[in-house]
Write a structure and sequence with these properties.
The chain is mainly alpha-helical and 211 residues long. The protein has nine helices and two strands, in the order ααβαβαααααα. Strands 1-2 form a two-stranded parallel ribbon. α3 runs parallel beside α5. The chain is globular, with a radius of gyration of 22 Å.
Length: 211
């Protein structure tokens, strides 16, 4: 029950922050989020979305302009922080193209050579459209990755573990509160490392043995 109450309170806080009447968020699916869909969701009291992963900067600005022209409701623009260039394996790529071809159109051999849109230019387009790419994209993305780290640590009700955040900015910077609020309920300890080290030793010393 405490967990349910916490989720309800966070949902209400989110809705108040973005002036959303109902807690319905459109999924930002790349290539499947026309402005008309976000306009319909926003006019119904929900939260619109644009999956902008594959969109050029001009298309991002045009999408935001059309969405704002059709509704006063809130919306998000979702990107993806680029990963390092992958190691290419021609044999595996050929096998994957063959597999995908059995479920749809044939995949051309140069499909993997397509360059992604420039990430910095995409972020600039979001800011020119009235958004804040750091607070509205990078911080939520970091919060999600941090939360996923908790999920990998605790796999069952019998698991116990500790996560140590060594970056003082989570306490000193305004965006730190967003990172901490995204974490599941857990005991928190803020202290110098010498104190935390002893706290962790005591925590693991008292941990029950695995069956």
């Amino acid at each position: 029950m405490p967990m349910a109450g916490s989720i309800a309170a966070r949902t209400e806080a989110f809705c108040r922050s973005f002036d959303v009447r109902v807690p319905i968020l459109l999924a930002p699916m790349a290539g499947a989020c026309p402005p008309s869909l976000s306009i319909a969701v926003a006019q119904s009291g929900g939260f619109g979305a644009c999956g902008a992963l594959l969109m050029q900067p001009g298309a991002i600005k045009a999408w935001a302009a059309e969405a704002r022209a059709g509704s006063n409701g809130a919306f998000q623009i979702n990107l993806w922080i680029p990963d390092p260039p992958p190691s290419r394996d021609p044999a595996r790529e050929a096998a994957m193209r063959t597999f995908l071809g059995t479920w749809g159109p044939e995949v051309p051999p140069d499909a993997g050579d397509a360059p992604p849109p420039d990430f910095a230019a995409q972020c600039e387009a979001i800011e020119k459209s009235g958004g804040d790419s750091f607070m509205e994209y990078m911080v939520p993305h970091a919060a999600l990755r941090l939360k996923q780290g908790f999920g990998r640590l605790i796999r069952s009700t019998a698991d116990r573990g500790a996560v140590v955040l060594c970056d003082p900015r989570v306490l000193r910077k305004g965006y730190g509160a967003h990172l901490l609020e995204a974490l599941p309920p857990a005991r928190r300890a803020v202290a110098p490392w010498a104190v935390l080290r002893e706290t962790l030793r005591a925590f693991y010393a008292n941990a029950p043995l695995a069956p």
